[in-house]
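[retry 2/3] Ysc84 actin-binding domain-containing protein: previous attempt timed out, resubmitting with same input.
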Amino acid sequence: MADHSVPSHVYEFQEVNDEAVNKHMTHDAAWASELISKLVHSGGDDAMKPGILNACEGLAFVRVAKGGLGLTVASGSGFVIRKLDQDRFGNSRWSAPVFFNVSQLGLGVAVGYESVESVLALMSLATVHRFAMDRSAVGTDLGLVTTQGAMSGVPAGTFGRTSHMDVQADNSNAVFAYSLSHGLLANISINGTETYPNKELNNKLYGDTPLEAVLDGKVKTFADLLPLYRAITDTAKTALQ
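[retry 2/3] Ysc84 actin-binding domain-containing protein: success.
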């Protein structure tokens, strides 16, 4: 019988005896928390709606830099967390993070440089676990992207169509992407994109533990991520008021 005396959103933490890794997680938690706030308060139809945090299965936070002159190259990094529990008041508990890298190569007509910060709301367990795979192809892009310090949708085609919303034919695998971009990039190209786990960082955190088990809540998380967990819960609760 489950013990209901302890709220489902209470965390258990583990420690990492690596100062550089702790700084990395602390920095990422602060960045991701600020990004959620910026996206929610950006205004307009492209703003992130707080309710998506109640509806999603997981969240991926991504930073990508993209540039080119004829041949476009993009690279970046990020991390993904899965929602493990949520009560009717909006309190939620999230998994420890799995860190990943992003790479992209495009052929076409492109000129300029752009950096993009994104939150991907993952609506199914399958889309969450995709980031734990050794290599995962995440789509192609055929579109025109011109951005200059404004909302631009999916990061320059990195994760799908150039729209703030990438909904596949199977809605159970929908991914809603919200982004802030900086720079100017005109791009008409077909791009192949891959994500793959950051093995060095994940190994320092979890050793040989399978990354899917991390996302399924089989390991304790880290106190460095607590500010992000709180920011997600506080934002999600505003949708219930």
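[retry 2/3] Ysc84 actin-binding domain-containing protein: The radius of gyration is 18 Å.
[retry 2/3] clearing retry counter.
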